[in-house]
Amino acid sequence: MYWDKALETLSPADLRDLQLQRLRETLRRAANSPFYRERLEEAGLSADNLKTLDDLRRLPFTTKDDLRSRGKEMLTRPLSDMVRLHASSGTTGQATVIYYTRRDIEAWADLLARSMYMTGLRPGDVFQNMMGYGLFTGGLGFHYGAERLGALTIPAGAGNSKRQVQLMQQFATTALHIIPSYALYLLNTFADLGVDPKGLSLKIAFVGAEPHTEDMRRRIEAAYGVKAYNSYGLSEMNGPGVAFECPEQNGMHVWEDAYLLEVIDPMTLEPAPPGKAGELVFTNLTREGMPLLRYRTRDLASFSDEPCPCGRTHRRISRIQGRTDDMIIIKGVNVFPMQIEKVLMALPEVHTNYLVELTRENFNDQMHVKVEVQQDFFREDLKYLTGLRKRITEALKSELLVTPLVELVEPNTLPAGEGKAVRILDKR
Ligand code: ADP
Ligand code: ZN
Questions:
Q1: How far, in Å, CA of 74 to CA of 250, rounded?
Q2: According to the model, what pLDDT value does residue 325 have?
Q3: Residues contacting ligand 1 via CB (< 6 Å)
Q4: Beta strand 322-323 pairing with 295-301
Q5: Which domains are assigned to the chain?
Q6: What percentage of the chain has pLDDT greater than the value 70?
Q7: 94 pLDDT above the threshold of 90
Q8: For ligand 1, what atom is nearest to the CA of residue 323?
């Protein structure tokens, strides 16, 4: 049941001890990088005077801008010691680059093996990795992890939908790694080919790389006949394998032997208590080539330190609720895209996709929501559709406190891609 029982079930006190010891080692390493040497000196902090984990809070945060402008100065060793680089997908601007030593790659693979093993993946399983290979960490990260675990790994890559279905059939794939919006989109291809995913050998799906709701997960599980596990990571912290769901499917365990977690209120920058959503901040505890200290992820979630029935002691974080930078302000009200998805995906009449357009006319913000409706419901008469449109509008209004303009469209008519979904078009 455990990949590394001793580590995964360390008592909370022992886990903090291990973190403290590893944090000291990390500070020692980080002091070899020009960027952190300067930061540590300014804060008067060193491996020797760090007494508690909280002492780290004397150090300023590292931001995405720091990485963009001074990333290379964060290397603790010469570039010739690095064996790989990855870059973020650049969802929110210019991509940031992370360098890995050989040991970093191995440690990262081990975290992913541990994560997948936790959900029941075993040697003998056939793992189809449907994430982009290349600079994006989702592809190679899982690939190395699955091989380390001993699963037969199919490097399918992203897109090429028909081929994906054929691969699942030909090699009796048992586990998938897939972007949630693409998992729903792919159902159209299954339908076109007359193949029922539930009739294949699939058991497990790892879904991640983009925010999604509980309803979205349940839809994927129902359509594919799998258990879907949420997987969270970001290239700045290696990539996937930072936090992962266990069989309880109730929050993601942050691998705290490798990552020191802080959750902060993004306005006051003070620590947020358990259960309260805040911005995730991580410090690498084992990375050799380019450890980042107090990296602000801009991802919003809450944490829980309640014991988990699975026996793992590493604290859990909630589903990611959005990014601090994807909040939209409409008519003066703050809206997160996930709130919209939460409302829409809870409605059985809604098909797999939606699109939000923001416009401004005469200084007036307008939110236009295009919603795909299941074919069966679309066949109904106008009166029914008018009623449905009204219900969706009301449901969105009560969640968002803004009245959107809802338009119902036929299934599979909104743009969908194979990468991270883009569902907000801000034309203001
Ligand atoms: P980019 O910031 O350019 O998208 P990455 O490719 O490194 O860079 O993607 C990491 C980001 O993807 C995370 O910071 C987070 O916003 C999002 N993400 C990754 N996994 C999940 C997940 N399971 N749920 C929600 N969001 C996720
Ligand atoms: Zn658990």
A1: 35
A2: 83
A3: 88-92, 136-137, 208-211, 230-235, 297, 299, 320, 323
A4: antiparallel
A5: 1-325 (3.40.50.12780), 328-426 (3.30.300.30)
A6: 99
A7: no
A8: 16
